[in-house]
Write a structure and sequence with these properties.
It is a single chain. By secondary structure, this protein is of the alpha/beta class. About 45% of the residues lie in helices and about 15% in strands. It has 18 helices and 15 strands. An eight-stranded mixed sheet has the order 9-8-12-11-10-13-14-15, with helices on both faces. The chain has a seven-stranded mixed sheet with strand order 1-3-2-4-5-6-7, with helices on both faces. The relative contact order is 0.13.
Length: about 500
């Protein structure tokens, strides 16, 4: 099935221009768009991915589409939904292999499954496209379908890959060997880092960093009253006084000691706005380093109990009451990530094995996905309540959760994966975790960072400036216009010469 996703964004270019910090990025975008859009007139641009919610691609797409439209590009968003559930299991394997993880053995049955699903979806989409359109395929799931459409219709096509690894392994060779026949027909490719570009696409690839929308529900400023309203409406905090908005459609839920999810404000709640909070918010994915982070927090707390390290009195109090929040989406809502439930179950078992005194300082939180904007407000509120935001990924294509927290002037601890290194400079606008599997080293870094309040303020200020200059959607749209325009002009030149 091919779903056309309707995009209805509340904010346009003029709304960004009203914000004094955003006026310069808006001016640059408008100045460049005036000339770049000319070559795209008469062409429809189709952006295709595999899910309309959950994950960075789905979050970026509505604003990217709406801004392109406002600037004069006839842009559309389509989502590919396979008929075979095992297809997403295969593409999840490919996702992990590109990140250097998993069994690199891919056989004829895998190829047959991928080809069959690609052919069926290509046939469903074919009638909507014309040779003058421009097709943009996001990630491996719809890549085979895109290759078929490129070859049958002759339309210009771009492959946008949001994942990668900055080293070659048997797993990466297997994944790109599998995908190469589908990626080669494309006119151009776009990656999040130059290190991710496979050799067979060298020379016809660009780099566009993912970006955040500063006016989205997830990243907009929240007044103290609005912040408290979101926490109460989501049941992330107890409603001690009346708030204006109505409760959210579904509430955030916290894991209890028996392994059941209950409303997060049960039994006194998490302590947001009162306690020091360390937070990680991501998909339930093994590559996000959930277990090592949990182990690191437990080790840090046990050092206090065992008296292994001397603590100044104020820091001792901070360490006594600090809490860890591990938050992710309801896994049932993420169709293209079948491992999510399994990873969450493993984390639940680790939590249940902890003594009660440690369980009370760790909140495993499931965020509902019934409403996109309510989910985004919950993430926004959690990040703003956090003294430290962690992204302990073993692999990370880019990591928009890092960007989001940087924009909010949070202190960010991120693993030294290639995607996160594109954003965080160690000691300048965040701290890098050398080994995301080394729980002891993570515990030490957490301890030092919690104690260094002046250093955290400095990192947060620098982090926000870095996002403003490099990772806002206004800059991303400008770079997309350059790529789309360049691709269209190259095709026109080739046709003219023929």
């Amino acid at each position: 099935m091919i779903q056309n996703v309707e995009v209805s964004e509340l904010f346009g270019v003029e709304n960004y221009a009203e914000q004094i910090p955003l006026q310069e990025p808006v001016r640059l975008l408008i100045d460049e768009a005036e000339s770049l859009v000319r070559s795209l007139r008469g062409r429809r641009v189709w952006m295709v991915n595999s899910t309309s919610q959950g994950g960075g691609v789905a979050e970026m797409m509505p604003k990217l589409i709406s801004l392109l439209r406002e600037l004069g590009v006839d842009a559309h968003w389509l989502v590919m939904s396979p008929s075979r559930p095992e297809f997403f299991a295969l593409t999840k394997r490919l996702h992990n292999l590109i990140h250097g993880e998993g069994d690199p053995q891919l056989g004829p049955d895998d190829r047959a499954l991928y080809d069959a699903e690609s052919r069926e979806n290509a046939e469903l989409l074919k009638g909507r496209l014309s040779p003058d359109d421009l097709l943009v395929i996001h990630d491996p799931q719809p890549l085979g379908m895109g290759a078929i459409l490129k070859q049958s219709l002759g339309l210009p096509a771009i492959f946008r890959c949001h994942i990668g690894l900055d080293e070659e392994r048997p797993q990466t060779r297997a994944a790109w060997g599998f995908l190469q026949p589908y990626a080669e027909p494309f006119d151009h490719a776009v990656f999040s880092a130059r290190e991710y570009i496979p050799g067979f696409l060298a020379g016809r690839s660009s780099v566009i960093c993912p970006a955040i929308d500063p006016l989205s529900y997830k990243n907009r400023d929240l007044s103290p009253q609005k912040l408290m309203g979101v926490l109460c409406n989501a049941r992330l905090a107890r409603e001690e006084h009346p708030v204006v908005p109505e409760p959210f459609e579904s509430c955030a839920k916290r894991l209890d000691s028996e392994g059941h999810f209950v409303p997060a404000d049960r039994d006194g709640g998490i302590g947001l706005l009162y306690r020091p909070i360390v937070t990680q918010i991501s998909r339930w994915d093994r590559l996000k380093g959930w277990k090592p982070l949990l182990d690191a927090f437990v080790e840090m707390k046990q050092r206090l109990v065992c008296g292994k390290s001397p603590f100044p009195e104020r820091h001792r109090r901070r360490m006594e009451i600090v809490r860890l929040v591990l938050a992710g989406p309801d896994p049932a809502a993420i169709a293209d990530d079948p491992e999510g439930r399994e990873v969450l179950d493993e984390l639940i078992e680790s939590y249940k094995a902890l003594p009660s005194r440690l369980q009370s300082d760790i909140a495993v939180v499931s965020l509902p996905m019934d409403s996109r904007h309510q989910n985004e407000l919950m993430v926004n509120a959690l990040q703003r309540c956090s003294g430290i935001v962690v992204q302990n990924s073993l692999r990370e294509g880019f990591g928009l959760t890092v960007t989001e927290a940087m924009w909010k002037r949070a202190t960010v601890l991120g693993s030294a994966t290639c995607g996160i290194r594109q954003q965080l400079r160690d000691g300048v606008d965040g701290r890098l975790i050398d080994d995301p599997t080394d729980s002891s080293a993570i515990a030490e870094l957490l301890d030092r960072t919690l104690e260094d309040l002046p250093g955290r303020d400095r990192l947060g200020r620098n982090a926000q400036r870095r996002v403003h200059s490099e990772f806002l959607v206004l800059t991303q749209v400008r770079r997309w216009l350059e790529v789309l325009s360049g691709c269209a002009e190259a095709i026109e030149k080739s046709e003219y010469q023929d």
